[in-house]
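Lecture notes, part 5. Sequence design as translation. It can be helpful to think of inverse folding as translation between two languages: the language of shapes and the language of residues. The source text, in structure tokens, appears below.
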């Protein structure tokens, strides 16, 4: 049994529920749980894992959750204050940040400042505040362990090699449900169409991001920060089978890749148990089941979110915050059928026209840029 105590932010989402399956398998202790609004699942999780604290981010549900858990000794909190408390809970050795969206930035910084090891599944943390996060991690000597399958794959491929030996990072993408389509083919895409991912079972926002290739754009930015590379050192390949989760090319042109079945429990477990490896409750990869693996170049003219993210990283500063904020707002509008699928990418790319302060920035500047990007999207729609 592994002796580790974890604070899990985003416990009722796709990553969170799979992380708890790993926790159950290996006997970790849960110090704190946090969720956005799935109060019934959060209550059940609290009863099973007996944390010291639970946080329901939606403050309107605080009283209901507190009443539901009044027969326990669990401390109940809510809002950003509760999320920050969960991220810094004293008995936690590690924080697994699996919340979705920009909301994950402040608890990430709080966990680092509290000296917690950080397993990071919230890519927006590095997209919007990469400079702040990496500098804080270095200052507090905190390890950031990637949970996304692609970044976990790169992290694994880097083991035993020196950073200066790396020539290129290769991020693989499933291509989502609309691989091979052109703009004219996507005029009448429905929400149900976009949520029909071919390989992965994920939450709604991340699934839409996969359909637009925004997810891969965000992962490019995240990889640049995590592995200290420029955006031009990162290549994206569409790999429909999702068997090769990413790869690293070295200066001698050797390419090392990490393979496995498309199951998030593998990278989640590796982050929680690093540097050790243990049996994982997933299917073993049998390449004969696939027969062949295929690769293709992405189409940034149809899936303009990918182009927007690359351009944002070239500009640097707060531009990645702009495209991320615009995307979060646009995806929400699309899920509520207020805009079309293609408008997501157009609005994300359009946000690059906003002006932002140059030079060093603070978390206040990040939050302001995020608000301006969301306001821009709403103004264009209304």
């Amino acid at each position: 049994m592994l002796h580790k105590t974890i604070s899990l932010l985003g416990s009722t989402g796709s990553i969170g529920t799979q992380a708890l399956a790993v926790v159950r398998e290996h006997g970790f202790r849960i110090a704190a749980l946090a969720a956005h609004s799935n109060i019934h699942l959060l209550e059940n999780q609290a009863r099973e894992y007996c944390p010291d604290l639970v946080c329901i981010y939606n403050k309107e549900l605080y009283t209901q959750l507190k009443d539901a858990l009044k027969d326990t000794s669990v401390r109940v909190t809510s809002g950003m204050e509760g999320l920050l408390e969960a991220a810094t809970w004293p008995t936690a050795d590690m924080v697994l940040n699996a919340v979705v969206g920009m909301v994950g930035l402040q608890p990430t910084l709080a966990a680092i400042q509290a000296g917690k090891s950080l397993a990071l599944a919230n890519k927006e943390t590095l997209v919007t505040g990469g400079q702040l996060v990496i500098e804080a991690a270095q200052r507090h000597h905190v390890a950031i362990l990637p949970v996304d399958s692609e970044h976990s794959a790169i992290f694994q491929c880097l083991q035993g090699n020196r950073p200066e030996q790396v020539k290129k990072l290769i991020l693989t993408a499933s291509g989502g449900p609309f691989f091979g389509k052109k703009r004219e083919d996507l005029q009448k895409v429905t929400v149900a169409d976009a949520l029909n991912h071919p390989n992965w079972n994920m939450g709604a926002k991340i699934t839409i991001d996969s359909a637009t290739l925004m997810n891969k754009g965000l992962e490019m930015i995240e990889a640049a920060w995590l592995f200290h590379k420029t955006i031009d050192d990162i290549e994206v390949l569409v790999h429909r089978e999702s068997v090769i989760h990413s790869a690293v090319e070295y200066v001698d042109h050797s390419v090392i890749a990490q393979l496995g079945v498309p199951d998030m429990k593998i990278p989640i477990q590796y982050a929680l148990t690093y540097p050790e490896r243990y049996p994982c409750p997933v299917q073993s990869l049998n390449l004969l089941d696939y027969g062949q693996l295929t690769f293709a170049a992405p189409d940034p003219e149809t899936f303009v979110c990918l182009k927007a993210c690359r351009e944002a990283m070239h500009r640097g500063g707060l531009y990645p915050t702009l495209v991320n904020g615009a995307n979060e707002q646009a995806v929400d509008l699309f899920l509520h059928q207020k805009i079309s699928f293609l408008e997501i990418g157009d609005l994300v790319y359009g946000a690059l026209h906003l002006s932002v302060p140059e030079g060093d920035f603070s978390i206040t500047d990040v939050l302001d840029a995020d608000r301006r990007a969301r306001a821009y999207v709403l103004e264009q729609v209304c």
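The translated text above is only one of many valid answers, since several sequences can fold into similar shapes. The first strand starts at residue 5 and ends at 9.
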